[in-house]
Amino acid sequence: MAFALRIWNVGFPNKILFDETYYAKEAWGILHSGYERKWTDGKESNPQIAQGDLSGFLEDPAYVVHPPLGKQLIAVGESMFGMNGFGWRFASVIFGTLLVFFTIRLARRLSRSTLVGAIAGILLTFDGLAFVMSRLALLDIFQATFTVAAVSAIVADRDWFRHKLADHLRKHNLNDLGGSFGPVMLWRPWRILAGLLLGAAVAVKWNSLFVIAVFGLTVVAWDLGARRLAGAGSKSWWSILADGVPAFVQLVVLAVPVYMASWLGWITTSGGYYRDWGQNNPEEPLVRFFGEAWGSLIYYHQKMYGFHTGNQMMVEAEHPYEAHPAGWLFMIRPIGIEAVNDIQPGEEGCDAVGTTCLQVISGLGTPTLWWAAAIAIGAAVVWWLIGRDWRFSVPLLAIASTWIPWFRYADRPLFFFYAIMIIPFSSIILAMALGKILGPADHPKRRKRAMIVGIIIALIIATFAFFYPVYTAETMSRPAWLMRMWLGNLWI
User: Start and end of every ArnT-like N-terminal domain (predicted)?
Assistant: First the structure.
């Protein structure tokens, strides 16, 4: 269902939208040269590209501020279907569908309920922001998918470790560890997979480093708690070293080669931006210590880091759709992706009377989903901290690691579509909250509770259907568009 919704007419509009002007074109350079290349006149070449004219593709390298993996994935679609809307959006459709799949898997593992997992998948399938981001050649959908997959693997490792501890006790006919530390387990396949996936997430966008930091600490706390529960007593504190060091290797060290592998196209060619810096500066310490190629790459990273953290132009810049992260959970200021205004009656399917039509694409989540999820997040904090239900800690920590770091950079333009990293986890929280409303199968009021849950889900799906025209650039009258701008100028 998610795939069918996202792939349908994904090539429309067949023009470069929003930040596709960077990533779709940079992906084309990676496809043909191994690194990003410039286009004539920047955004001015976009109409030519939409018409199939690629003569503006230059040999000069482009300066970029994000790692290559997301653009490499976009390039896969371009290699299959060409430099057109369908081609540069195809990979996003695939990963947007996978995002739903991994969300289902994570919700299922946390709740131990196939129904709750299915509900989480339905919620994310019918979220407007996830839908729109799955149909654009931007980087964030790839980052979100790798992140949710990694968190799912981390939770699978938690189960795996506890099962292995239980197996150890059964094998030795023990009721508990009796104060001993227990077996040291260096081979953690799920955690290794998580490290590789987190490396891929960082290779799309750097802010996934916060996810590594948060869950790196979390897994050590989980291991310590598991050993204490198994009877390790005071020796469980050795877990900080005995389990913590391997966790660092598995989640951090293993992520490094994945990240570096994404730069191989830049490393193994000679035309990338700053690629010749080491050759031109052989006496620099970076070059003398790391060599020409790797020294150049580190220098490039220093420049990229400066752009993200210290560039005064970014601090002083303004954007009509900038959104403070404090308002993201409540969707106070969504992002405008595309707008074609003043379509006259009789043109482009406009059937308006006494007014004009327009075609818009808004990076707007499904309002009923986001607002219900915001309430559920508040309840989840209580269920975790007061109710001691660890399951809610996972999506809450994921939200914290993908949302709170943005507050540090709130003095520069930030945008609501970054919250694509949040909605999979808030969908899981809402699904688990609905599971609590539903209750066990033998509950005397199960039927009534199921009706309440069904109404909430149906309302969310109906809201998505109502907003569908502003997700897909359907021609609509201006009054019909305004009717969907529920928060007035904040959404326009």
Answer: 80-153
Of 465, 463, 444, 445, give the one whose Cα is nearest residue 453: 445
Average pLDDT of the chain, as a whole number: 95
Give the Å distances, CA to CA, from 141 to 67, 74, 380, 409: 14, 11, 25, 21
32 contacts 227 by C-beta, under 8 angstroms: no
Distance CA 33, CA 476 (A): 42
Residue 319 Rama label (left phi>0; alpha psi -120 to 50; beta): beta
Q: Are strands 335-343 and 57-61 parallel, antiparallel or unpaired?
A: unpaired
d(CA 214, CA 219): 9
Q: What is the pLDDT of residues 384-396, one digit of tens each?
A: 999 999 999 999 9
φ, ψ at 83 (rounded to 5°): -85, 75
Which residue(s) pair with 39 in the sheet? 57
Q: Helices in 235-283 by DSSP H: which ranges?
A: 239-242, 244-248, 255-261, 264-267, 277-280
Cβ-contact 144, 421 below 8 angstroms: yes
- Give the CB-side neighbour count of residue 62, counting CA atoms within 13 A: 27
pTM of the model: 0.96
Q: How far apart (Å, rounded) are the C-alpha atoms in residues 430 and 149?
A: 19
Question: Tens of pLDDT along 419-452?
Answer: 999 999 999 999 999 999 998 877 888 899 999 9
User: Which pair of tokens denotes residue 137?
Assistant: 């050649």
In order, the DSSP letters of 51-91 are TT--TTEEEEEPP-SS-SHHHHHHHHHHHHH-SSHHHHHHH
Of residues 308, 274, 319, the one with CA closest to residue 292: 274
Rounded to whole angstroms, what are the CA distances from 194 to 221, 393, 398, 404?
A: 17, 18, 14, 22
- Closest by CA position to 354, among listed 346, 345, 362: 345
d(CA 175, CA 173): 7
Listed as own residue / partner, the contacts of 344-347 with beta carbons closer than 8 Å and 24 or more positions apart are none
Distance, in Å, from the CA atom of 69 to the CA atom of 270, rounded to the nearest integer, reads 19
Neighbours of 80 (CB within 10 A): 11
Question: How many residues are given for the chain?
Answer: 492
Residue 401, beta-bridge partner list: none
Say which amino acid occupies 56: G
Place of tokens 């204490």: 228
Which sign does the torsion angle of CA 109, 111, 116, 122 carry? negative
Q: Within the chain, which residues score under 70 in pLDDT?
A: 311-317
Peptide bond between residue 424 and the one before it cis (omega within 30 degrees of 0): no
